[in-house]
């Protein structure tokens, strides 16, 4: 029974279907089932010791020279993004072709295949909805690309491995550069077609992952060990959170909290679909050594020196 539960859970990280056909009762929008209730209602694993998301305190981040550059495969391939779906009224998810998309390097132990990406958001311009925060700052949205270690035969096996999954997290920041970037315009154009729980539409040959991640320097990231951020919060994730946000126009960000619904009926909208930050419990967040001073920092340093000299 547990195996079946896990298989179904992971077939869609947002639809936690039990073997008797009922659904595991968790939600984002009601006091009776929101994330503050998960540790008591779903203690295995939501009350664990390496939960996600977390607040990243940059002053406490430790340098780790093993955090090398990633190698991305298929991120430029528009046939690797298969379909977009209203995932159980909890998120918007794009299924990925894992025979075409994968990552390695980046301090990971081997090859991880891309399974899907999905998004977390708040409520338009009025409230931010990223899961991770940086020095307490919450970004408007966060994108998660979920990968599974290629040597695992199934998600069930991967979830029992402390490093079975690799999730790449990208913050999304709002710009007022209307309707950009182009790829986000293309992606969000599908939202009205998946307004009801369970709706799915084909998006093949239209969008690339590289196009969606435009502007992010993928050599700069945070790393820590954590969990799924949805029940049952399995502690199987090597987290990578990139420092640079993707800059998306406010207009397009607002479409997420105004287009997709929790139910098959047209109410309520999916809003604030993020879990609050969890205690680090002794974990240390790592990043690349900062010895390689960025041009911006070098410039600031020069400016500071000039200031003191003058
Ligand atoms: C979650 O529910 C609790 C009560 O169980 C409530 O106090 C809290 O404000 C709710 N939080 C969110 C983010 O909805
Ligand atoms: C993607 O990039 C790889 C490596 O640079 C290249 O060989 C391949 O042709 C590209 N694929 C597409 C669809 O552009
Ligand atoms: C989201 O924002 C809209 C308009 O700003 C507001 O009417 C609505 O009540 C908000 N929803 C939630 C769940 O906070
Ligand atoms: C954003 O809008 C403000 C006010 O309309 C404008 O001054 C500013 O230049 C805009 N910024 C960008 C990055 O477009
Ligand atoms: C994005 O959408 C526009 C308008 O529908 C279309 O012309 C363009 O080809 C699309 N771009 C890609 C890369 O699919
Ligand atoms: C990305 O960041 C690295 C490290 O800070 C830097 O060396 C590199 O030049 C940057 N790449 C781009 C395209 O800005
Ligand atoms: C919508 O879904 C929520 C959560 O599943 C449920 O509590 C509510 O009764 C549903 N509302 C309608 C009108 O179906
Ligand atoms: Zn997520």
From TrEMBL:
Residues 1-19 form the signal peptide. GO terms for molecular function: carbonate dehydratase activity; zinc ion binding. It catalyses: hydrogencarbonate + H(+) = CO2 + H2O. The keyword Lipid biosynthesis does not apply. It comes from the Eukaryota. This is Carbonic anhydrase. It holds the Pfam family Carb_anhydrase. Belongs to the alpha-carbonic anhydrase family. Gene3D superfamilies: Alpha carbonic anhydrase. Its cofactor is Zn(2+). It comes from Pygocentrus nattereri. Reversible hydration of carbon dioxide. It is an enzyme of class 4 (lyase). Residues 24-289 form the Alpha-carbonic anhydrase domain. Its EC number is 4.2.1.1. Keywords: Glycoprotein, Lyase, Metal-binding, Signal, Zinc. The keyword Metal-binding applies.
């Amino acid at each position: 029974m547990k195996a079946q539960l896990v298989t179904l859970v992971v077939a869609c990280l947002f639809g936690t279907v039990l073997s008797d056909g009922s659904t595991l009762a968790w939600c984002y929008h009601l006091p009776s089932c929101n994330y503050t209730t998960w540790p008591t209602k779903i203690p295995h694993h939501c009350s664990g010791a390496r939960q996600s998301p977390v607040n990243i305190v940059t002053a406490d981040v430790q340098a780790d020279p093993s955090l090398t550059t990633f190698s991305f495969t298929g991120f430029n391939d528009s046939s690797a993004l298969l379909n977009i779906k209203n995932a159980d009224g909890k998120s918007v998810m794009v299924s990925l072709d894992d025979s075409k998309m994968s990552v390695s390097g980046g301090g990971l132990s081997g090859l991880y295949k891309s399974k899907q990406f999905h998004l977390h958001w708040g409520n338009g311009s009025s409230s931010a909805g990223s899961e991770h925060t940086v020095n307490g700052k919450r970004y408007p949205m966060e994108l998660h690309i979920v990968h599974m270690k290629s040597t695992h035969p199934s998600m069930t096996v991967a979830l029992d491995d402390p490093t079975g999954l690799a999730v790449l997290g990208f913050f999304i920041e709002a710009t007022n550069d209307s309707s950009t970037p182009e790829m986000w315009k293309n992606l969000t154009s599908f939202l009205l077609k998946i307004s009801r729980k369970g709706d799915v539409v084909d998006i093949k040959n239209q969008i690339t992952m590289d196009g969606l991640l435009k502007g992010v320097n993928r050599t700069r990231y945070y790393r820590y060990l954590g969990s799924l951020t949805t029940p049952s919060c399995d502690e199987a994730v090597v987290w990578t959170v990139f420092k640079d946000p993707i800059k998306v126009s406010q207009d397009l960000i607002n479409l997420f909290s105004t287009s997709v619904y929790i139910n098959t009926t047209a109410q309520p909208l999916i809003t604030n679909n993020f879990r609050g930050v969890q205690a680090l419990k002794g974990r240390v967040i790592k990043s690349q050594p900062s010895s390689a001073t960025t041009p911006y920092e070098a410039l600031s340093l020069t400016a500071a020196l000039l200031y003191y000299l003058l």
